[in-house]
């Protein structure tokens, strides 16, 4: 089974971005880990990251057309992007929402709401990059 792992804005700077919150694993390392975890689970994983909302919407639309399961860390778009919400609503295969930190436990009010959650079969948050493995396990379980 092919799976897309889609990462939103600022996640390309993982490892350098607020390591006290997001850890020291870089995005390239995370991508390699996701591919390896996927292989263990019998999944063919492709990892992408973009800072551009329209690019993310295009990827989600393609995933809807292809009925591809998605692991999505929409990063800040999680909290306010109705374009990402509409794109998630069109997905045909399961969607797992993932966050490295736990937005619900962070002090900023705006992080407490997710436009993605209503369309996700599961939310994995607060487990660091390990959360991506947990999200892939959800998809592998079917
Ligand atoms: C994040 C949490 C979001 O609130 C934040 O905007 C991010 C990353 C996470 O993975 O913990 O960019 O999605």
From TrEMBL:
PROSITE patterns on file: DEHYDROQUINASE_II
Positions contributing to substrate binding: 73, 79, 86, 100-101, 111
HAMAP family: AroQ (MF_00169)
UniProt name for this protein: 3-dehydroquinate dehydratase
Enzyme Commission number(s) from the entry: 4.2.1.10
Pathway membership, UniProt: Metabolic intermediate biosynthesis; chorismate biosynthesis; chorismate from D-erythrose 4-phosphate and phosphoenolpyruvate: step 3/7
GO BP term, pick one: aromatic amino acid family biosynthetic process
Gene (UniProt): aroQ
């Amino acid at each position: 089974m092919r799976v897309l792992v889609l990462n939103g804005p600022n996640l390309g700077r993982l490892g350098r971005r607020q390591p006290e919150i997001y850890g020291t694993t870089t995005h390239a390392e995370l991508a390699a880990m996701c591919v390896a975890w996927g292989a263990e689970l019998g999944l063919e994983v492709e990892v992408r990251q973009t800072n551009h909302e329209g690019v993310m919407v295009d990827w989600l639309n393609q995933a809807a057309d292809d009925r591809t399961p998605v692991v999505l860390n929409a990063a800040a778009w999680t909290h306010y992007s109705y374009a990402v919400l509409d794109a998630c609503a069109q997905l045909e295969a399961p969607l797992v929402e993932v966050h490295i930190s736990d937005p619900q436990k962070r002090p900023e009010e705006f992080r407490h709401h997710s436009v993605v959650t209503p369309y996700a079969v599961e939310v994995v948050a607060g487990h660091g990059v390990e959360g991506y493995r947990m999200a892939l396990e959800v998809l592998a379980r079917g």
